[in-house]
Automatic annotation (TrEMBL):
Signal peptide start and end residues: 1-23
Gene Ontology molecular functions: hydrolase activity, acting on ester bonds
Entry's family note: Belongs to the 'GDSL' lipolytic enzyme family.
Tree of life domain: Eukaryota
Keyword Glycoprotein assigned: yes
InterPro entries referenced in this protein's UniProt entry, alphabetically: GDSL, SGNH_hydro_sf
Name of protein: GDSL esterase/lipase
Annotated keywords: Glycoprotein, Signal
Organism whose genome encodes this protein: Panicum virgatum (Blackwell switchgrass)
UniProt-listed Pfam families: Lipase_GDSL
């Protein structure tokens, strides 16, 4: 089990660090393109609660969970933010450093316009491996979302 946990952490950190940011192309002479100030125009984030900025607060099995109530979000946001943290998470810092707008949580969007700034496809409790694979080994999860679901959501956004 420890080996599985290490693999999961490595996969999640890799996904976070790669963040799948889309290059904005050649910037104009001011170094800006649209609303961005750098090389990137949007971010697509994958992962679990380490990168989720609101999907778990919407996903029916976890909606209304503890992270949707105070003290989660109290210190930095002043209100519950849907993050499994009192403050910001790695996605928030990456978006700030890349100088791009915060991506819309996938489950909060409904039109193409909602995803112009990218999308956060991460959902707290998701796994790298398929739920069926885990269930066959006696592991059950409240969140039946895996990395393959997140990549399908990404295809829907595109």
């Amino acid at each position: 089990m420890a080996q599985f946990q290490r693999l999961l952490v490595v996969l999640i950190l890799t996904a976070v660090l790669l963040v799948v940011a889309e290059a904005a192309g050649d910037p104009d002479t001011s170094g800006c393109r649209g609303l961005t100030h750098g090389r990137y125009s949007r971010v697509f984030a994958f992962g679990n609660s380490l990168t989720d900025t609101g999907n778990a607060a919407i996903y029916p099995p976890t909606a209304g969970g503890t992270f949707t109530r105070l003290p989660y979000g109290q210190t930095y946001f002043g209100r519950p933010s849907g993050r499994a943290s009192d403050g910001r998470i790695i996605t928030d810092f990456l978006v700030e450093e890349l100088k791009v707008p915060q991506p819309t949580p996938y489950l909060a969007g409904s039109t193409a316009a909602d995803f112009v700034n990218g999308s956060n496809l991460a959902i707290g409790g998701s796994t790298a491996l398929e739920p069926a694979f885990l269930e066959a080994r006696g592991v059950t999860s409240l969140v039946l979302v895996s990395l393959s679901n997140e990549t399908r959501w990404f295809q829907n956004v595109l």
